[in-house]
Amino acid sequence: MMSTDLPNQEINVSDLLLYVNCPRRVYFVNRGFELFSEVNASRLERIILKELSLNYPEIVKECSLNADNLHKELEHSLAKVCTDLPLLFPRELAGVTKEIFEEGKARARAKLPEIASNLLGALEEFGKESMLAALTPVKTEPFLSSERLNLKGVPSKLVCFEGAQVPSILRPGSCPEQGVWASDRIHIAAFVLLLEAENGKEVPFAFVEYVSFGLLRRVAVRSSDRREVLKICREVEKIKAGLMPERKEEKLCKECNFSEHCVSESSLMSKFF
């Protein structure tokens, strides 16, 4: 018989991202299934570039506005990040071979010219002072929670920009030509709601940093974004209480770690009960 104490489970912002990707992922992760089976070179590249982006403020502050100098500083910082990585992520990197590590490192290094070019372009357009304000954390990975929202989460950082303390998230992977991806808009809107609940002040905007490209996007959070976050929260509550979402056939289903378990509802129920 299914447990009756699940409805009171607090929702994590990461649950909202799972839901946007596929509602059934919330179901499986909530029941102890592993989201990632192993760290491959592609995932390692993303981890490296996220860590590298935390050094952008120091690099921007110290470096002259020169593409060659900026690239050299990024190279130097990348080397330090790769040295520290096993100390920062011992569990995630425990099974990573030297070959995979070197491939991930090489893939990250290949992105440096584009990152340097985009950072330099932003510096020239907005100026060093504005860039430093948008990149420099006043708090790194702060824990935010709201009993009213039944929601908790940890943004990458909080920055102080134009007199307002706003959340900023670091996103690996691809970047849209303009604006931010819909899932990133949901992601950042959730943190805006949490920060408003904690500080009691309106948060008018936020930042999404696409670390594989060195691009920083300012996001004005709309009422529709807030509405979507609240809607997804309610759906996630139902799933955590035991609801099995309908299966949706998507192009990424074959690559999903849960594909062998994600069958018809009647078949899935027979696996668990």
Describe what this molecule looks like in 3D:
The chain is of the alpha/beta class and 273 residues long. 51% of the residues lie in helices and 14% in strands. The chain has helices at 13-21, 23-30, 41-53, 56-62, 67-88, 98-110, 112-126, 128-135, 182-199, 223-240, 265-272; strands at residues 11-12, 137-140, 144-146, 151-153, 157-161, 164-171, 205-210, 215-220. The strands form two sheets. The chain has a five-stranded mixed β-sheet, sandwiched between helices. Strands 1-4-3 form a three-stranded mixed β-sheet. Strand 5 (157-161) and strand 6 (164-171) form a beta hairpin. The chain is globular.
Blueprint (SSEs and pairs):
Blueprint: E1 11-12, H1 13-21, H2 23-30, H3 41-53, H4 56-62, H5 67-88, H6 98-110, H7 112-126, H8 128-135, E2 137-140, E3 144-146, E4 151-153, E5 157-161, E6 164-171, H9 182-199, E7 205-210, E8 215-220, H10 223-240, H11 265-272
Parallel strand pairs: 1-4, 6-7
Antiparallel strand pairs: 2-5, 3-4, 5-6, 7-8
Helix pairs in contact: 1-2, 1-9, 1-10, 3-5, 3-6, 4-8, 5-7, 7-8, 9-10
